[in-house]
Amino acid sequence: MAGEPGLAALYGRYIGQIQARIERAWLRPRAAIGSDLFRCQVQIDQGRGGGVGDITLQRCNGTAQWQESLVRAIEDASPLSAPPNPAVFTPHVVLVFRSTGYTQDAPSGEFQPIPAPAVRQHRATAVALTRIRALRWPAVARFGKDAVIELDITGSQVHVVRKH
């Protein structure tokens, strides 16, 4: 391909399509990377139809969770993009992936979602705290701001009593 600029351009486009397909499939962990930037060089062995065979992480930093998320993305992206010209097909693709860690303003589609039980638990806790805080002002009005109170919560019933 070195002597054929047209094929070199097609090869570059082909590798770019493979990389983009994997990037779209990659759900990065919300967990810490272990450094400022996750970087991983990976070799992907593929068949003529784009089916992924062996995946070799060659030089990677980050935690096992980050590395495993990249391997899952490669597997999920299989079959990989077909070459625009059969002459540029390669059975061994070497790519480098980089990512910063999760932040609150990160695009939601790039990171693993919060597990549903954790979301429900978070919402339930927030609702409970709101209800408990709502009891504060009636208790202050009834017993005074320095009073120690005791909450007795049974089912949906809440009883506020002054603790002596």
From TrEMBL:
This is Uncharacterized protein. It comes from mine drainage metagenome. It holds the Pfam family TonB_2. Gene3D superfamilies: 3.30.1150.10.
